[in-house]
Amino acid sequence: MKVTNSSLTFLRAIIYASVLATLLFCSAPVLANSSTPVDLDFPEHTETPEPGKYPALYNVPLALAPHDHFFLSRPLIIEEVSWPTADFRYGFFDIKTNSLHTGIDLVSEIGEPVLAAGDGEVIFSGYGLIKGSFDPEDPYGIAVMIKHSFGFEGHTLFTVYGHLQKSFVKDGQMVKAGEPIGTVGITGNTSGPHLHFEVRLQEGQDAVVQNPELWLAPPLGYGVLAGRIQTEGGYFLPSKNFTLKSLETGKIWKITTYSQNLIDRHLNDGFFNENFVLYDLPEGKYEISTYYYYGLYKAEIDIAPGAVNFITFRGSQGFVFGYPIINDPTEFLH
Description:
By secondary structure, the protein is mainly beta.
């Protein structure tokens, strides 16, 4: 199924109208430049799958707006769209284990195929990703790391696949996106079968983790919501709970912002500088709400498909929908 030029024009018109309408519903004045139109370049997408299979996905790379970077395909075959709870998502800090969650956990059955999220070279396979020397006590268990043949803003991109049952690949092996590289398991520090998936960007001698929800291409007709939940002075509110509700279906998502541990280490996107992300949201109208100093703040927003939709909460100023302001638009990493 192809997207025609007339369809593109119609979709652009819908998104521009939706953003304008959203601004009118916000509970605070619009921040400077938040209403600047964004030129969205709609791509062709994959063919519609047969009934009973997983949803169609946009082709990668996908970047409808200038700072979007949906460069990776799903590392698991999607049977249905699901949303992990807060402790399975990026930025959660586990007090019991004193550990920061630096990826997303994708629940699946033992033995399900794990797929390469993009073309590249396997630079690690086996035990010992963190502890080295193929240490069987490594928290990632059996893991694979891929150095991809593409990057972003001059930075090399890596992906990590943890808690595998087995690995099918060896160090130095070249793989293609969608190629099986292992199977889902329960090795390492895990209480149940799932894939721990990370995205890392090279910064100097280090590879800095990023939220994978900003890098995985969404299903057709779905978008991503990212944002900053802050005080009036612009300080992040860590581990802050808020609610997103679909005004069309009534479905409710409970979302928690990143922990202070992640913010202190600047492990968020260099442009968005977000402290929460929620991917795979069906396009449509939503209500976002949170309590702040015993006051309830709400705003209505539209989620556009195939793109990062951004919102900011600034304490008593309420919610503002629109792209964030940055001091240096060319700077990506902190």
